[in-house]
Amino acid sequence: MNKVTIIGTGPAGLTAAIYAARAQLAPVIYAGIQHGGQLTTTTDVENFPGFENGIMGPALMEEMTKQAERFGTKIVYDMVTRADFSGRPLKLWAGDEEIETQSVIIATGATAKTLGLAGEQKLMGRGLSTCATCDGFFYKGKRVAVVGGGDSAMEEATYLANLASEVVLLHRRDEFRASPIMIKRAMDHPKIKILTPYLIADTVANDAG
Length: 209
Ligand SMILES: Cc1cc2nc3c(=O)[nH]c(=O)nc-3n(C[C@H](O)[C@H](O)[C@H](O)COP(=O)(O)OP(=O)(O)OC[C@H]3O[C@@H](n4cnc5c(N)ncnc54)[C@H](O)[C@@H]3O)c2cc1C
Prior knowledge:
Helix content: 25-40%
Bound molecules: flavin-adenine dinucleotide
Order of helices and strands: EHEEEHEEEEHHEHEHE
Structural class: alpha/beta
């Protein structure tokens, strides 16, 4: 039986693995479909402490993987498909394989909700981002568009307005789902221009990237 089973090999899962392995808990970590997690899909990571000149996302995740393995973490390149936490030991399944474990750390992360338009994948990380606090710095002094009408869109727009020359917030409806205080903050900001109703129909991915 595993003492600790970790689901997910993104930064959260691998950090948990490093701690658990160093505590002699012999963690077993399941990678799922994206070993290394979301950072494997990006280029420069500039906000991870210890890398003065930044580090490429895949390289950072490779380092974290090696660090976890060095202390005895066992990585399983499989997807956890089912869980039963109703009794002890806890049970997980990876396909047909049943796993008994004393504890589980769920570090399955998140996936950005994109618009699903042609060209989006090609532009990702090349002018198109899904995280203002991660990538906002790359847009310093530039004109940026934020798409959406919820709290996240308002928050990201307000954050970006401190860096960009102008933020244009585009929303498909005239009403916003965001909380009134967040809407007011965005509307009152001198660098945020709000355009509604605007539906993004397509993205253009030119060869220059
Ligand atoms: C393009 C891009 C650029 C980014 N740039 C930055 C940046 O520069 N700086 C920054 O701080 N943040 C950045 N982020 C955000 C950062 O990647 C996330 O905050 C971080 O990856 C979250 O880590 P996590 O370990 O929680 O989850 P994730 O990285 O999402 O990892 C989730 C893991 O869980 C696994 N998993 C999911 N379901 C299962 C299952 N059923 N069974 C087994 N495994 C499963 C997946 O395969 C994956 O390994 C960026 C994100 C993206 C998409």
